Amino acid sequence: MAPIPPGVRFLFSFDKDQWYRAFTFTLTFLLYTSFHLSRKPISIVKSELHKNCSSASELATASGGGASQLPALISLHADMDCSWKPFDKSNYKQLLGTMDYSFLFAYAIGMYLSGIIGERLPIRLYLTVGMLCSGLFTCLFGLGYIYEIHSLSFYIFVQVANGLVQTTGWPSVVTCIGNWFGKGRRGLIMGLWNSHTSVGNILGSLIAGSYVSSNWGMSFIVPGIIIAAMGVVCFLFLIEHPNDLKTMHAQSSSPLSATACNGWNGVNGHKDMYLQYTQGDTQSGDQEPLLCRENGGSGRVSGRVPVQQVVVVKSESEPSAISFMGALRIPGVIEFSLSLLFAKLVSYTFLFWLPLYITKAAHLDAKKAGDLSTLFDVGGIVGGVLAGVISDKLGKRATTCAVMLLLAAPTLYGFSMISQLGLGPTVAMLLVCGGLVNGPYALITTAVSADLGTHKSLKGNARALSTVTAIIDGTGSVGAAVGPLLAGVLSAGGWDQVFYMLMTADFLALLLLLRLVAKELTTSKSRPISAVELKEH
């Protein structure tokens, strides 16, 4: 008999539970990748919306013509299709900033409501509807080019609507991944998983960049189709909680066998649900759960229990969804939320304005600038993973964030100086800035949110995770809305003012974490984050 190939032995070394975890990790990664993929095109298209108008203006200056040449210049302006109204005006930066603000402000407001709504609806359906609607509105923005829509109100409406429906994504995927993975190595797992943000930005930049110079409408339509298609995948395959599998097997399997399981968690995550057997004679295993995750997790059993004799009995008391004020009272939620406000302000200013800045500073076209901006996200992937690993090792989430924020501020100043010196230094600084800016942002929105959403004060009520995640990310999204708007206003007076604003935001994010940092540093010894408990204050 031929030996079993090592690859096959490796695959069979994982039990069914581990395969489901890997599947959920991958699926939620891809789902949220599509969210960021659909947000990125606007930053790539910005430089194209005003590019031709700027060229025409330069042509007019070079011609040195007087009033007699004005009709000819206007005709040339029209022939070159140099203007895309309403962004052909001198205040185009403010108009583009308004579009960013419309999306992000709606996203910030909607996020506070999304977590509360998401805890009361099935995650799979809630996320599916959000992704389908987001695909629709993303495509609508691109259709504005195809049907030559030049109304600013149209684009603002699409941005506001898209911002609202995209709030369904983050609380849903974080809750789902939190259900499947415990606190052990949460920083590493969440750091790897959160790279979907940067992967989505990179893919969005590459897709939008491939169409931006020829037909910028397709820069939105293609990502819109992708996120809608992923919404269908979500509906077909997303498993919200490991215990949903137990319920499925209990309802649909024919006679099963079972062994004793000491770690039975109840049905569908509720420990107040149990199995009652109505068969008169007692057999070994009659009082055991049908599906087992602990103690081997294989689910194989010896005694056979007829499914028709199983009755699911549910007690009247069930964990209720936490209130908004109740979530705010969880120790650490307010500090991390406010810190994320400023950290996300910096990250999203780069997200929406970096390609345009590169076109002005490095004098590159829209496609090359978009491709180069992806290096910031590559650095963000490394920074997010590194922040998670370090915080797991030290057991100090706030301290890890604070150190990276402290290093980020002078690095931003260095980037503003070095980006004028050429392509090589710019590439290096983009990678470093991406890691230091996105590291704290990634850590707070993932591992920290999951830690606080399962805090000891909740007494095991896991239904708070969605609301806590929404509060933290919603507060951060306020900064994400303000940052690009301020960048649009300040850039009119020079890009240096934008970088000063970003450095100030980093320092404020650091100051807001100092109380938690002091508490972590006064701990007698470093412990894993799962054992670190923030006291009430």
Tell me what you see in this structure:
The protein has helices at 6-12, 16-39, 41-49, 51-63, 70-79, 92-118, 123-146, 152-165, 169-180, 186-193, 196-211, 218-237, 242-252, 324-328, 333-361, 366-394, 397-418, 423-453, 465-490, 495-512, 514-521, and strands spanning 256-258, 273-277, 303-305, 310-314. The chain has 21 helices and four strands. By secondary structure, the protein is mainly alpha-helical.
Keyword list:
537 residues; mainly alpha; two-stranded antiparallel ribbon; two-stranded antiparallel sheet; 4 strands; globular; disordered C terminus
Global geometry: globular
Run of helices and strands: HHHHHHHHHHHHHEEEEHHHHHHHH
Largest sheet: 2 strands, antiparallel
Query: Helix fraction?
Result: 55-70%
The poorly predicted ranges are 52-80, 256-318, 528-537
SS elements, strand count: 4
CA radius of gyration: 26 Å
Count of alpha/pi helices: 21
Give the rounded overall mean pLDDT: 76
Category by helix and strand content: mainly alpha
Straight-line distance between termini: 67 Å
Order of the strands making up the biggest sheet: 1-3
Q: DSSP strand (E) fraction?
A: under 5%
